[in-house]
Design a protein that fits this description.
Shape: globular
Largest sheet: none
Strand content: under 5%
Structural class: mainly alpha
Number of strands: 0
Radius of gyration: 24 Å
Length: about 600
């Protein structure tokens, strides 16, 4: 691939603009910890929504989608499409609750909802566990994608790639805080969208592909096009569709798709102007994430099956790539090497944007845990804003270094995705129920976290060696069923065997966030003067389901039109439009 001076000029301009944004916001970000991590809690829905989309548009996402499509076809994407359900639950049920909490981070929630040593332990442990260890794993998968892109498209070594990406990202993240991240995300989002759509359009016109119709008719591709897996084969439809849609979305914890909201999604909601803007931000995020972006990646993935049908073909085309970095996910950057001068510069800038937007968000989010939930809470409660910002900037650098080191040891984004799902299996239901069920306590979450981790280690590390539980290779989904079942039974037992939180703690939380009263009735009935908020939960669940149908309809409407099924596309588009009118009308009425 020939990267010309024009391409390098586009990339250089992108870096310069990103750095200038960081410098522009540095002064305001450094004025206080609230400014550095929450942008003064005054952000509009459109900026927050675009930032969420940009963050999930990481460089490993098209690689992951390519890996999925090459292995399991378009239907394999239900592994992440199913998370739309929890996304819409967050939009209409949890966004306003998070904003009402007025927490600085979602971990501060623990000492609002629970009390005593258990709550303090949860906050401190998860600050380090999620903010450092778990967060480093996520950033390492993004850095791994950067390594593969840099190696295939620019001939850079892994170390060279990481040095370039890390230095620029750390500079603007540590200087500009969340506001710098949000503004840079906004700029990077449009670069990323132009790059992905432009790449798909050009690749479909390659001589080896011929046209969209030729691609869809190709013998290797035609068997990969179904939206839903073949229901005559349980080895396909159970792991690819039933498991994600029936269990995975509510039972597992995964960054950006946490049941009940959380992580950097919660950070964005907490920084919104008000509840309405928090809802609008998460709604826009889910629409763009699931309905707008997937098809350019899917089309490139399908085209890669024509040009690089096997991993051996990738190895032959890129012999300088280390063997441990070879995989189906390498096919996405491999396809981009066919792009012409000018477009390759835009696409490279878009991929760099994808890497940097995700890394910058995770750096700021992880740093907020380290500063607010560990350093300020347990190390130096009287720290000044200047000290907190300084610790935030130092932790940003440390997190980037740790993730870069781990990235050099990883080989596949899909492997990391599956491991992370396994570690969080069985904990998701707690994050959904803890807002609405008074009986859940700190020990519920502590034991759920411990059990799910031990079970994940057993199934991923120990059991393959000892075979105590026989799991056929074509039934790997049984691991998730076992993990969810064991973890859920474990934390339910702990919940009923331990004391509930004190009434004053429960009442304080209830008064602040005002959840629907039905799950708090046993406590509230002891205090006749306490107002019981009936809430609008049934309506919110109805909007969640309406929004889910709307977005899936929009996603598949696009797919139908691409496949040449005009009638199917039109019907799905009408359904999506009707759902959109209902959602928009309801959102405008929300306070």
């Amino acid at each position: 691939m020939n990267v010309t001076a024009l391409d390098w000029g586009i990339i250089a301009a992108f870096f310069i603009i990103s750095l200038l944004i960081g410098l522009f916001t540095a002064k305001s970000a450094g004025s206080s910890a609230k400014e550095f991590f929450l942008s003064g809690r005054n952000m509009p829905w459109w900026l927050l929504g675009v930032s969420m989309v940009a963050t999930t548009f990481s460089a490993d996402t098209p690689n992951l989608v390519t890996d999925i499509v090459r292995k399991n076809g378009v239907a394999g994407n239900w592994a992440w499409w199913a998370f739309l359900l929890t996304g819409m639950l967050t939009v209409f049920v949890y966004a306003k609750l998070w904003r009402r909490s007025e927490a600085t981070t979602d971990l501060e929630f623990y000492e609002m909802r629970y009390s005593g040593k258990g709550a303090a332990f949860l906050r401190a442990f998860r600050a380090i566990y999620l903010g450092v260890f778990f967060n480093v794993v996520i950033m390492a998968t993004v850095s791994l994608a950067a390594i593969k892109i840099g190696g295939v498209m620019l001939g850079l070594s892994p170390v060279q790639t990481l040095l370039i990406a890390s230095i620029v990202t750390v500079v603007y993240s540590s200087l500009g805080g969340l506001k710098g991240v949000l503004l840079t995300d906004f700029f990077q989002f449009f670069i990323a969208m132009i790059g992905s759509f432009g790449a798909a359009y050009y690749i479909l016109d390659l001589p080896e592909i011929g046209s969209l119709n030729n691609l869809l008719a190709h013998e290797v591709v035609s068997t990969k096009l179904d939206f839903i897996p073949d229901f005559s084969d349980p080895n396909l439809y159970i792991p690819l569709f039933i498991m994600p849609i029936a269990i995975q979305w509510w039972a597992t914890w995964y960054p950006g798709a946490e049941p009940g909201g959380g992580g950097y999604i919660a950070q964005r909601m907490l920084s919104a102007k008000d509840e309405k803007n928090a809802i609008g931000a998460t709604l826009f995020f889910n629409i763009a994430h699931y309905a707008l972006r997937p098809w350019p990646w899917i089309l490139v993935a399908l085209a890669s099956l024509v040009i690089y049908p096997n991993i051996s073909d990738l190895q032959a085309a890129f012999p300088h790539i280390p063997v441990d970095k070879l995989g189906d996910d390498l096919a996405y950057p491999a396809m981009l090497t066919f792009l012409p001068t000018g477009l390759i510069g835009i696409v490279l800038a878009s991929l760099i944007a994808a890497v940097m937007s995700t890394l910058s968000t995770h750096l700021n989010w992880g740093s907020s845990y380290v500063v607010n939930d560990f350093y300020l809470r347990f190390v130096k409660p009287d720290a000044s804003d200047k000290q907190l910002v300084a610790v935030g900037r130092i932790s940003t650098v440390v997190l980037m270094v740790l993730s870069a080191v781990l990235a050099l040891a990883l080989s596949s984004a899909l492997d990391a995705f599956n491991i992370l799902l396994q570690i969080g299996a069985g904990t998701g239901l707690i994050f959904i129920l803890r807002w609405f069920w008074w009986r859940i306590n700190a020990y519920t979450e502590i034991w759920a976290m411990a059990i799910s981790f031990v079970v994940a280690i057993f199934f991923e590390v120990i059991n393959p060696k000892v075979n105590w539980i026989l799991i056929p290779e074509n039934q790997a989904y049984l691991k998730l069923i076992y993990s969810v079942s064991i973890t859920t039974v474990g934390w339910m037992l702990v919940t009923f065997l331990t004391k509930p939180e004190k009434d004053e703690v429960l009442l304080s939380f209830y008064r602040k966030v005002k959840p629907a009263a039905f799950g708090w009735k046993k406590v509230l009935d002891r205090y006749p003067s306490e107002k019981q908020e009936q809430g609008t939960l049934p309506k919110e669940i109805g909007l969640m389901l309406t929004g889910t149908v709307m977005i899936y309809s929009a996603l598949f409407s696009t797919g139908f039109f691409i496949y040449g099924n005009t009638l199917g596309g039109a019907i799905a588009a009408v359904i999506a439009l009707v759902g959109g009118v209902v959602i928009l009308t309801s959102w405008k009425k929300m306070s």
